[in-house]
Each structure stands twice: as C-alpha cells, then as structure tokens.
Amino acid sequence: MKTTNGPIIDMTPSGHFAQEPITGPTLGVILARVLVFTIALGFAALAFWLAVFTVPILIVIGLVGYGYFRFKMARGGFTFGHTMMRNGHR
Asked: What are the transmembrane regions (predicted)?
C-alpha cells in the first residue's frame, strides 16, 4: 500500500494545472470594501453625535415648556375647566 506525504497536484498532460489556484480578493475589491466600511462608519458616527447634541437640547426645551406651563397655571393663565363641552353643557 502506497502512502502519500502531501497534497496531490492535479496537472494536465501538457503541464498545466487542472484547476486555477485559488486567489484572494484583488486590491480593487479590498479598497471597495474599506471604502464602504468607512462610509458606513461615518454615517454611524454622524448619527451618534447628532443624538448626543440633540437629546440634551430637547430635554432643556421640554423643561422650559414645563416650567412655562406651571408658571401660567399658577397665575391662572391655563385652566382645564370648560375645555371639553358636550351637548352644550358646561
């Protein structure tokens, strides 16, 4: 019985390989993948910083609106009486 010590290289009678050797991605494919990843990372960073700066501003606007509403309620500016009239009754 014959034992082999390595891979079998499949060649044609003319001396060429029967299958083309497996090659990795070309430089253009690698650069395209890096470009797509960089653009996606840039959009994610932009969304993150937009959220970081927008959420505190919205919180401050909400607190100012709440304070204004409470101030107007204390001075009698807002009342909840007679806001929903049904069948002409108050």
From this structure: 21-41, 47-69
Rounded Cα distance, 80 and 72, in Å: 12
Is 41 inside any structural domain? Answer: yes
Range of the domain at 51: 27-76
Query: Is the pLDDT assigned to residue 7 strictly greater than 60?
Result: yes
Mean pLDDT throughout 23-41? 95
* Number of structural domains in the chain: 1
pTM of the full predicted structure?
A: 0.49
The answer, yes or no, to whether residue 71 has pLDDT greater than 60, is yes
In a domain, 3, yes or no: no
Question: CA geometry: angle at 38 spanning 25 and 33, to 5°?
Answer: 15
Considering the domain boundaries, does residue 11 fall inside one? no
For residues 19 and 10, the answer to whether their CB atoms sit within 8 Å is: yes
Q: Which residue has the tokens 């010590």?
A: 5
Question: Is residue 82 domain-resident?
Answer: no
